[in-house]
Amino acid sequence: MAPIDPHSFTDSTHPLTTHISLSLYFDFSTSTISSSALLTLCAPHTGDLLLDTRSLTIKSVIDPINNTPLSFCLSSDVDPIKGQPLTVSLNNNSKILITFVTSPSSSALQWLTPPQTFNKKFPFVYTQCQSIHARSIFPCQDTPASRVRYNAKLNIPHQLSAVMSARHVERRAPLAGGDSSFACDESLWCAEGRVVEEFTMEQPIPPYLFAFAVGEIGFREVGPRTKVFAESVPAVLDAAAKEFAGTEDMIRVGEKLFGDYDWERFDLLVLPPSFPYGGMENPRMVFLTPTVIKGDASGAQVVAHELAHSWTGNLITNKTNDHFWLNEGFTTYAERRIVEAVQGEDIAALNIGIGWKGLVDEMERFKDNIEFTKLLTNQEGVDPDDVYSQVPYEKGFQFLWRIERQIGRPAFDEFLKKYIAAFKFQSIDTYMFLDFLKVNVPGIEKEIDLKIWTEGTGIPFDAMEPVSNIYKKIVSLANEFKQGRMPSEEEVANWHGQEWELYLENLPKSVEASQVTALDSRYRLSESKDYEVKVAFLQLAIASRCSEYYNIVEKTLKEVGRMKYLRPLYTALVQGNVKKEEEKIFAQRVFSEARETYHPIAQGVVESILSKHL
């Protein structure tokens, strides 16, 4: 066996899947999906075929050409990271039909009961497949080295609707006579009160970009290529439509910088507060946390990042998670170019400054595991969710920014367009990128130490903080706080969320409790509607042992499930050498009460933090 990915059982000698046809019957009463998947391989194969699964019950594997059973074995050994390999014995087969049922504990799915939704009437379910969770929805070669087209039939209660990272074909009644493709009994598939939503994805995507949501979903039009979807609550939909009104302008800027937008639609889905990420770049249908709706259009910067993925990440994909920086470093660079063009250089500089501080903090986080301060990592035996960090984003950005400074922006823009055109709809690794760079920018390896940047630990000496008057002013004010000076109301009069975030991130890790309460008394940061500001302030309050803010910490941990907020708050409560018994007991209690509201990925991350420090 020759694995092609440290996080997959996929064998390099086996043909890759090129197309998957899915039939999915949603049972909200059991939080399961009864399913079938028709896999088409790139070539006929004789011998074993290995597929990734996690927490799936396999019912049958069939040769769909003659409807005869195929021999299969689901391993009884469960790898804690990769799950269970499904081995199917083939004899010159290029298609296989698998029937199976998901588990209520599927790591990709969060099932919300009606009380967990805005309207409290109907249930809701959504996916998060990155990095290695598609295998908990359907058997597949769950590696970004594999790119597949797919179509899907979702059989759901008629009061609900579905969206997917795919083109919507139609909403219709279930049909008798094979419509279910053996996903479940026909009597269930065609039962009264059920509808089928059909989708198709005609471009090849890695499995982690497979996505759907089912619930009471409405939408607003915000541009010629964009609708904003969310739970069907007018206030939520209207706020989202207002926040993301400038999306079409960003798409046009992206096309000018990086070439045509190849995905036709750029729709947005605002998910319930439990969504574990800021955004997920699912093609045609970006998933977003509601915490990006801030009321001042600044949340559009998360949209800029997910839009940038339409070129870097979705069109060109890292071959394995060892090369994750190819997705995120490029996208962070592209996001900041879009933001600079739409919102100006100062806002882009603030972004870079916040990112720089985040990168410096990650060096401290990984000081005992410096492998993960590299761009090119070795993740054999490592859960990618456990080492998810800002390093591939911010160090990757710094690397590309360093190249831009070396050769000049016009030349780098030409290089980027050439790079995207050369590798679109392919999965590549760091070495392929470096070879392409050296061919297209002759002599670059003499000017920049490419090996240090990609394989070295820490922050290279030629990385750079942003150069901007507003950035310098805010950092200077943060330094003055150490001497007890708070910024005046005049100095912060024009500050928005990003300015406050940069200021708070640059304050000392621990200050006097009286300084924390004085800062909050003047500026009410603990009450901010911007979670970036609120969470940065609450980290400061925890570090300074300001227990009067713990009720706000608890409320925050119970009302959002975004890991960007959960990770630092839980870590601040339990980490450190000082005696923190009260904080540890508090963290355990809050998590035990909030756990079921978090997505399974977030549950695992918090459990990992608590187990490390308790």
TrEMBL record:
GO terms for biological process: proteolysis. Its EC number is 3.3.2.10. Zn(2+) binds at residues 305, 309, 328. The keyword Metal-binding applies. This is Leucine aminopeptidase. The active site is at residues 306, 393. One of its GO terms (cellular component) is cytosol. The keyword Transmembrane helix does not apply. Keywords: Cytoplasm, Hydrolase, Metal-binding, Metalloprotease, Protease, Zinc.
